[in-house]
Amino acid sequence: MGKDLKLAVLIDGDNIPSAYVKEMMEEIAKYGNPTIKRIYGDWTRPGLTKWKSLLLDNAITPVQQYGYTTGKNATDSAMIIDAMDILYSEKVNGFCLVSSDSDFTRLATRLREAGMHVIGIGEKKTPDPFIVSCDRFIYIEILKSRSKENESSSSNKSEKKGVDKITPKVIRLISKTISDLADDDGWAFLGDVGSLLQKKQPNFDSRNYGFEKLTPLIHSIGNFEIDQRESQGKYKLMYVRNKKR
User: Fold this and answer.
1) Angle at 80 between CA 127 and CA 45, to 5 degrees
2) At what angle do helices 214-221 and 168-181 cross, to 10 degrees?
3) Under 8 Å CB-to-CB from 8, ≥6 apart: which residues?
4) Residue 42 contacts residue 69 (beta carbons within 8 Å)
5) Largest alpha-carbon pair distance within the chain?
6) Are 198 and 136 in contact (CB under 8 A)?
7) Contact 193, 181 (CB under 8 A)
8) Torsion of CA 97, 103, 108, 114, to 10 degrees
9) Is the separation of the CB atoms in 236 and 228 below 8 Å?
10) Short-list 2, 63, 5, CA closest to 34
């Protein structure tokens, strides 16, 4: 997956807070070029007024969807219909679905079946079925903490707020992934480890645990050895293996 990935960004305006849309769009730009950007909601409702000033700044097209029936989410239906229209238009090769709603699980699965790369963005309350139906899932809380760090880089509290603990389950996941990729000496290329972790657990992200990159996360655990090797290019290659007990 490279920067040439053309993405359709579809945002559930009823289900996502507006405060961090700038950070969200910056995050999406890391994975590809957002050629289509739409947000869905009933814009006659006062709850969506905060979005309006942000749409022009970020070139996001609002799609009006009236809530005709109480208890039914018309926004979901509109997003799903548009997603399928975009899929068949063949203008993109990836989707970014921004919602914390499990109703988009089947949509994400269907898009991946069609060969699309699917990125999900939502809050930590997002149900697991939607998370695992995406290739990658990014928590908004990560973007919130980064925004607070930018506002006050001297505040240590904001850096640690909302950080997940590195549990034995996480350590086992990393250890098993290294073993899956290891050569005869037990070494695995760190880039491959990161890719396989993402496939096994789409919401795996070193930033969830307070680290910008995978290398310092692994180094902090103490169960692994890290070897930095020279390469022909300007970048050094990082290898990792499980420490022998």
Assistant:
1) 85
2) 110
3) 34, 35, 36, 38, 83, 86, 91, 92, 94, 95, 96
4) no
5) 63
6) yes
7) yes
8) -130
9) yes
10) 5
Report residue 143 as tokens: 């973007």
- Are 98 and 24 in contact by the 8 Å Cβ rule? The answer is yes
133: helix, strand or coil: coil
With beta carbons less than 8 A apart as the criterion, state whether 172 and 222 touch: no
CA 15 vs. chain centroid, Å, equals 16
Whether the model pTM is above 0.85: no
The first and second tokens of residue 67, run together, are 């809530």
Evaluate whether 205 touches 122 at the Cβ level (below 8 Å): no
**Which amino acid is located at 64 in the chain?**
Q
Under 8 Å CB-to-CB from 155, ≥6 apart: which residues?
A: 148, 149
Measure the CA–CA gap between 213 and 233, rounded to whole angstroms.
20
For residues 122 and 137, what is the distance between their CA atoms, to the nearest angstrom? 8
Q: How many Å apart are CA 32 and CA 14, to the nearest integer?
A: 25
pLDDT (tens digit per residue) in 160-171: 556 888 999 999
The type of residue at 49 is T
Alpha helices (H) along the chain: 21-29, 49-57, 74-89, 105-113, 128-132, 140-151, 156-160, 168-181, 190-200, 214-221
Sole residue written with tokens 């799609």: 63
Angle (nearest 5°) at CA 13 between 7 and 14: 140
**Tens-digit pLDDT profile for residues 35-67:** 999 988 887 777 667 777 788 778 888 888 776
